[in-house]
Amino acid sequence: MTSHDLLILCAAGMLVSGYLIVGQKRLFTTIRLFALQSLLLGIVAATIAVTQSRHELFVTAGITIAMKSILIPWFLMRLIDRIGIHREIEPFLNVPVSLLVCLGLTVVGYRVSTGFPEAVGGARHHLIGVALSMLLIGMFLMVTRKKAITQILALLTVENAVFLVAVGVTPGMPLVVELGIAFDVIVAVLVLGIMVQRIVDRFDSMDVSRLSQLKG
Amino acid sequence: MNLLLWTLGVPLVTAALGSLGGSRRIREITMVGGLLATFALCVATALDFLGGAVPSAFDEALRVDGLSALVLVLCGFVGLLSGAYGVGYLRRNEERKIVTPRMRREFYGLIPAYVFAMLLVAMSNNLGILWIAVELTTLGSVFLITFHDKDTSLEAGWKFLVLGSLGLAFALLGTVLLFAAGQGHLGEGMAALNWTRFIEVASSLHPFTLRLGVVFALIGYGTKAGLAPMHTWKPDAYREAPSPAGVLMAVGMLNAAFYCLLRIHLISTAALGPEFSGDLLLGLGLFSVLIATPFILIQWNLKRLLAYSSIEHVGIMAVGIGLGGEAGAFGALLHMTYHSLAKPVAFFSAGTLGQLHSSSNFDRIGSGTFSRAPVASGLLVLATLMVTGSPPFGLFFSEMTILKAGFAGSHVRVTATFLAALVILFCGFIFQVGRLVLGPPRDPKDRRVPRPEQFDIATVTALVAGLVAIVSAFYLPGWMLGLIRAATRVLMGGA
C-alpha cells in the first residue's frame, strides 16, 4: 500500500466515522467514533510528515492524537458517567433522512473542492473534499441534535475538518500558532464540559431544546 | 521594555491579582488602578504611533498601525469605564447580599483579563494570534454571561458558547484557507501568517482559495461582531451579563471583532479589489439593520433593546465599509468611535435601573422612572438621543457621512433602504425609552416599590461617561482625530 492509498483510506475513514456519528444514538459509541476519527486525522498528518519530510507535522499529529483521541474523549466519557445519561433521544430528523441529507452535503463538499489548485483526483483533492463534507455534516449534526454532548461532538467534528484542511492544503501552520490553537480547543472543551455540568445540575437534563425561555 | 508588552502585561497582572483575593478595598483599587494604567498605556502607544514610530514586538507578530491604535484607545477607554462602574455595581449587589465568593473572584479576575484579550486582538498583526485572542474573549464572555447563575443565564451562556465556537471554527478555517492561498509566497515560520506579509504578496494569492477563505473568515468573525443572521446570541447574552460586562461585550468585543473583519476585508481588497468582500459586508450590514428594526419595535426588555441597537450599529459600520470609498471608511470609523463613547452611558443607566428594580423587563421597571431615579433616567434619555443618531451628537455626523458616501456612489437603492430603516429605528427606540422614562409614576401603594437611587462611584462613572460623550460631539482632541484619519488611511491601502 503506498502512502497515497493510506491517505485516501484514512480520509475515507474519517468521513465514514462522521456518518456513523450521525447514525448512532448511544453517546459512548459516538464518543469512541470521534476518537477514531481524530486518530485517523493524526495518521494523515504523520503520513504527510513522512512522505513530504515536513517534520513539524509530527508535532501536529502528536497533539491531535494525544488531545482529541485520548484526552477529550476520556473527559467526555467521565462527564457522561457522572451525569448518567447514555442515549441521545429522538433527534429532530430521524436517522435515515439524516443520512440522506449528509450524502447530499458530501456531494456539495466534493463539488466545492474541485476549485482548489491541487490536481483533481489526487490524494489532496480527497482530503479537501472529505474536510468540507465533514464541516457540513458537523454543522448539520449541531442543528438537529438535542443533547448538549452531541453538540460538543458536532463542534469537535467541525474542528477536525478544519485541521484536515490545515494538514492537507497548507505547508503546515507555524508551530506557535498551532500550539495556541490546540490549547484554546482544550480549554473550550473544558468550558463546554463545565457548562454541561451546570445545565444538568439545574435542569436535570442535558436536553438543550429545553433551553428556550429567551425569545424576541 | 517594549511599550506594547507593558500595555498587555498590566491588565494581565491586574487580572491575576484580582483573582487571587485580598480585602475588597485592595481588590477595587487594584482593578481600577490597573485599568487606568492600561488606558494610559494605550494612549501612550497611540501617541507613539502618531509621532511616527511603528510600535511592534515579537518579529512583528504584534504591530500597531493607525487602525490598531484607534481600536486600542477605544478598548482601553471602555475597559476603564467598565472597571470603575463595575466596582460600584458589585458594591450595590453586596448590599443586596447576592454576591458569592465565586462571583467576587470571577468579577475582579475576568474583567481585566477580558480587557487584555481585546487589546491583544487590536495589536496582533499575526492572523493566528488574532484568532487565539478572539477565542480568549469568547471563553471569558461565557463566565461573564453566566455570572448570576440563573436558568436564563445558563441558556444564554450555552447558546453563546455553541454559536461562538462554531463561528470561531469558521474563522479558523478561513485563516487556514488564506494561508493556503498564499502557498509558496508567504515564507517560513511565524511571520508567514503576518497580515503585512499577506498585503505584500496579495497579487499572487490563489483567487479561489482566497475567496473561500475570505467568506469563511467574514462569517466567522461576523458571528463575534453580531452581524445578522449570526446575531442570535446577542440579545440573550446582553440581558444576562452584568452591565459592566455587557459594556465590554457591546463595545469592546464589537470593536475587536469588527477590527478582524476589516483586516480580512483589506487582504481581500488588496488581492481581488474592494467589490468582493465589500459587497458581502454591505449585504450582512444592511440585513443586520433591517433585522434589528422589528425587534426594537416589539421589545420587552431594556437590555435586549440595547443588544438590538448594537446589532444595528455594527450593521451601520459594515454598510459604511461596504459602500466603499474614503468617505464610507471614514464614516464607519467615526461611527465606531462615537458608538464606543455613547453605548457605555446607555448600558450604565440601564444597569442601574435594572438593579433598582431587580429586573430589566419593561413591565417590572414600569413607567415614569424619572420620578424614582432621575440621574439614571436622565442619562438613559441622553444615551437614547446619542445612539439613535440625533443631532448634535457624534453618531449623527457619522451616519450622515456614510449616507453621503452611499448616495454619491453606485448603491443608491441600498442606501435609501438603509436610510428608511434608520428612521424607523430612531422612532422605535425613542418610543420604547420614552414609554419607560416618562408617563405616570408608579402607584405608591405598589408592593414592588424599588430601592431609592444612590449616589456612588457607579453613578459618578456614568456621569463622567455621559460628559465625555457630550463633549466629544463638539470637540474631538487633535490626536483622536489624527488617529481616525490614520485608520482611514490604512483602510484606503496606505501605511
Provide a short characterization of the protein structure:
The complex is a heterodimer of chains A (216) and B (495). Chain A is mainly α and 216 residues long.
Number of DSSP helical runs of chain B: 19
- Would you identify the regions of chain B where 5 or more consecutive residues have pLDDT less than 50? none
Secondary structure tally: strands of chain A: 0
Beta content of chain A comes to under 5%
Helix content of chain B: over 70%
Distance between the termini of chain B: 25 Å
Termini distance of chain A? 58 Å
| Main interface by residue count | A-B, 42 and 49 residues
The tally of structural domains of chain B comes to 1
Could you tell me the mean pLDDT of chain A?
A: 85
- Spatial arrangement of strands, main beta sheet of chain B: 1-2
The number of distinct helices of chain A, counting runs of at least 4 residues, comes to 7
Q: Give the strand content of chain B.
A: under 5%
Task: List the helices and strands of chain A in order.
Answer: HHHHHHH
Element pattern of chain B in H and E: HHEEHHHHHHHHHHHHHHHHH
Class of secondary structure makeup of chain B? mainly alpha
Supply Rg of chain A.
18 Å
Any idea how many domains of chain A? 1
Shape of chain A: globular
Q: Say what oligomer this is.
A: heterodimer
Query: Outline of chain B, from the CA principal axes?
Result: globular
Describe the structure.
The complex is a heterodimer of chains A (216) and B (495). Chain A has 216 residues and is mainly α. Chain A has one domain. Helices cover 77% and strands 0% of the residues of chain A. Chain A contains seven helices and no strands. In chain A, helix 1 (3-23) runs antiparallel to helix 2, helix 2 packs antiparallel against helix 3 and helix 3 runs parallel beside helix 7. Chain A is globular and about 50 Å long. Chain A starts with a helix and ends in a 13-residue tail after the last helix. The mean pLDDT of chain A is 85. Chain B is mainly α. Chain B has one domain (3-491). In chain B, a hairpin with a 4-residue loop joins strand 1 (56-57) and strand 2. Chain B is globular, with a radius of gyration of 21 Å. The mean pLDDT of chain B is 90. Chains A and B meet through helix 5, helix 6 and helix 7 of A and helix 5, helix 6, helix 8 and helix 9 of B.
